[in-house]
Amino acid sequence: MLKLSKKAEYALMAAKYMALKNHSGFSTAKEISESYQIPYQLVAKVLQNLVKSDIAVSAKGVNGGFSLARKANNISLIDIIRAVETNFKIVDCMQLNSSSADCEHFDCCKIKDPLAEVQRKIDKVFTETLLVQIL
Amino acid sequence: MLKLSKKAEYALMAAKYMALKNHSGFSTAKEISESYQIPYQLVAKVLQNLVKSDIAVSAKGVNGGFSLARKANNISLIDIIRAVETNFKIVDCMQLNSSSADCEHFDCCKIKDPLAEVQRKIDKVFTETLLVQIL
DNA sequence: ACAAAAAGGACTGATTTAGTCTGACATTAA
DNA sequence: TTAATGTCAGACTAAATCAGTCCTTTTTGT
Ligand code: SF4
Ligand code: SF4
Q1: Which residue from A2, A104, A107, A115 has its CB within 8 A of the most atoms of ligand 1, so it is best to mutate?
Q2: Has this prediction a pTM greater than 0.85?
Q3: Could you tell me which of A17, A77, A102, A126 has the fewest CB atoms within 10 Å of its CB?
Q4: pLDDT tens, position by position, for chain A (135 residues)?
Q5: Max CA distance (Å), chain B
Q6: Which atom of ligand 1 is nearest to the CA of A110?
Q7: Does B122 touch chain A (CB under 8 A)?
Q8: What residues form DSSP beta bridges with A57?
């Protein structure tokens, strides 16, 4: 269906939120959750993913929270989405070393290469759009 | 996950198959199914969808089958994919008259407009790639 | 000590996908 | 006329994925 997952959307919303209030310290998961009506547990998980991918940093304990690890003009949408979305590919055979293990049609498929080109163009869209551009 | 459905892939494969042998009459669902190892019933359904969207024409009965309705340089990938994929949008709020009925976050969402721009760029990729370019 | 907040795992219900089955209906060659 | 070929169409199932919840642990400031 070529749809972004909710997690990806929440990640973008959270990143935008942090970017907007970046100067004034940490943002908590609760804060973001309430601000955008997103389930707390879900946004918390998403934020953890962002930390794992070095897009955000976290501080535990009272007065803790999350904050962007880099400037908004140094974070692309693809960074944010890849942090939460395991498999950001339009088809199953787009890994570096894909084989018939990834797709049973691998050997007789005639649309692999054209779709790889399409994939490159889509990646380009998400790579070239920076967080600062969606603020 | 931003993945194309198998139906979309099969539609592309079938369209390419027909484009390649267009001069020599009709292609049957069975023929395409065997050629690419796709389940017969599925590819048959996909071909029916292509007919419904005026991308292919069908002939019933003995010696019948499917054939492209237009030249391959007049069919874009988005035509083919839209024929089988009901909603080809990255998020739920991209209809012309979207409202909070489409997405509960509609009112407080701050990433709607940026994502609409992304959507436009992705549509552009699929619109500008023509069937003739993937032969 | 206590409360706030992140970290992380297990689990469930709902939705979507991929594929199957079955039964029409239309065309044509023999 | 009839049998074979082939499209058309809908219901159905199993598996995968998604979205969301629950629960426990760890860390930290007051
Ligand atoms: S090999 Fe072909 S059918 Fe298989 S995933 Fe790649 S493009 Fe799709
Ligand atoms: S309104 Fe916002 S959250 Fe809802 S679908 Fe659109 S972009 Fe996603």
Answers
A1: A115
A2: yes
A3: A102
A4: 899 999 999 999 999 999 998 778 999 999 999 999 999 999 999 999 999 999 999 999 999 999 999 999 999 999 999 999 988 999 999 998 899 999 999 999 999 999 999 999 999 999 999 999 999
A5: 58
A6: 2
A7: yes
A8: A67
